[in-house]
Automatic annotation (TrEMBL):
<dbReference type="InterPro" id="IPR015908">
    <property type="entry name" value="Allantoicase_dom"/>
</dbReference>
<protein>
    <recommendedName>
        <fullName>Probable allantoicase</fullName>
        <ecNumber>3.5.3.4</ecNumber>
    </recommendedName>
</protein>
<feature type="domain" description="Allantoicase">
    <location>
        <begin position="16"/>
        <end position="170"/>
    </location>
</feature>
<keyword id="KW-0659">Purine metabolism</keyword>
<dbReference type="InterPro" id="IPR008979">
    <property type="entry name" value="Galactose-bd-like_sf"/>
</dbReference>
<keyword id="KW-0378">Hydrolase</keyword>
<dbReference type="GO" id="GO:0004037">
    <property type="term" value="F:allantoicase activity"/>
</dbReference>
<feature type="domain" description="Allantoicase">
    <location>
        <begin position="190"/>
        <end position="318"/>
    </location>
</feature>
<dbReference type="Pfam" id="PF03561">
    <property type="entry name" value="Allantoicase"/>
</dbReference>
<comment type="pathway">
    <text>Nitrogen metabolism; (S)-allantoin degradation; (S)-ureidoglycolate from allantoate (aminidohydrolase route): step 1/1.</text>
</comment>
<comment type="similarity">
    <text>Belongs to the allantoicase family.</text>
</comment>
<dbReference type="InterPro" id="IPR005164">
    <property type="entry name" value="Allantoicase"/>
</dbReference>
Length: 336
């Protein structure tokens, strides 16, 4: 996999993405494109419309009286607007019915536009019409330095695509964050895990997802440690801010929760200081702890002792004026 695939999937259903319209979804519904799980397949599962697939599948097109075949498209609202670094078009399990070609366009729209209102948007081609294979994940690097809110997947002329992954860097609208108490560690506000000791079972970015984890796999889980060290993760905050309350959620970790946690913060000069001394944790519990610090931090390190994971990590606080300036100038530069 190329580098961009480790970035969050901005289109993912569990990050608020939605497939808001499609030209056709006769065989399989458009919503499957952004399912968070890997595409599944059971052979010989024929329903009333045909074989069942975990993807978006359109009818076989036939030329009209002018010999025109047309093509199919699906419109996706990103859950998290941002700069797109790469797209994966996955035709998993579509072997005799994949589209031979596909392309992707993107646009930036303010507010909450309907599919009809997006027709006149300024669409930019981010993946040119490219050849596809059946049952394969195709990666396309994207090199457009702009914040996008929607993408349109085109397939030529018809067929089935299991997943569309739109990896990129989240660029939040600073007007929705300035002056408010926010989760400085939320993926949707632009935070990310930059390093961790172990991600054997699941990715530490999962801790920063919105809402609650429905099961263990939707959080961060490490392998069992067999040495005397402990697991840890470093989170780059949405922007420089002051943290007033930390939330360590061990929900769903019943026999593998960490025994304790510590938290430290790094300032813009790169110096680390303790934000929370070693504190015991209970399994399957959401712990909310007020922090006794008004220091500006850009990164935090969460240490779990000795291993296990966390379902969610929330760091409530506010942006400092440096944080607000940074977010505003980035948003402005990428929106112009
Ligand atoms: N869902 C389908 O049945 N699709 C196709 N057919 C099979 N057998 O997969 C097709 O494109 O005709």
């Amino acid at each position: 996999m190329t580098d961009f695939s480790s970035l969050p999937d901005l289109a993912l259903r569990t990050l608020g993405g939605s497939v808001i319209a499609a030209s056709d979804e006769s065989f399989e519904e458009k919503e499957n494109l952004i399912n968070p799980w890997a595409p599944k397949f059971s052979p010989e599962t024929f329903g009333a419309k045909g074989q069942e697939y975990d993807g978006w599948e359109t009818a076989r097109r036939r030329p009209d009286e002018n010999g025109h075949l047309g093509h199919d498209w699906a419109l996706v609202r990103l859950g998290l607007p941002g700069v797109i670094r790469g797209v994966v078009i996955d035709t998993a399990w579509f072997k005799g019915n994949y589209p031979p070609h596909a392309s992707v366009e993107a646009c930036a729209a303010g507010g909450y536009p309907s599919p009809a209102e997006l027709e006149d948007a300024a669409w930019t081609e981010i993946v040119p019409k490219s050849a596809l294979q059946g049952d394969a994940a195709h990666e396309f690097k994207v090199d457009v330095e702009r914040r996008f809110t929607h993408v349109r997947l085109n397939m030529f002329p018809d067929g089935g695509i299991a997943r569309l992954r739109v990896h990129g860097e989240v660029v939040p609208d600073p007007r929705l964050l300035s002056g408010l108490t926010i989760d400085l560690a939320a993926l949707e506000n632009g935070a990310r895990v930059t390093e961790c000791s172990n991600m054997f079972y699941s990715s530490p970015d999962n801790m920063l997802f919105p809402g609650s984890a429905r099961n263990q796999a939707e959080g961060w889980e490490t392998a069992r440690r067999r040495d005397r060290n402990n697991d840890w993760a470093i989170v780059r905050l949405a922007a420089p801010g002051e943290i007033t309350l930390a939330e360590f959620d061990t929900t769903n970790l019943k026999f593998n929760a960490p025994a304790a946690v510590t938290l430290s913060g790094r300032n813009s000069s790169g110096q680390w200081r303790e934000l929370l001394p070693k504190t015991h944790l209970q399994p399957d519990t959401r712990h909310r702890i007020r922090l006794d610090s008004d220091a500006e931090v850009t990164h935090v390190r969460v240490d779990i002792h000795p291993d296990g994971g966390l379902a969610r990590l929330r760091l409530w606080g506010s942006l400092t004026s440096a944080g607000e300036t940074l977010l505003t100038s980035r948003y402005t530069a990428l929106t112009a």
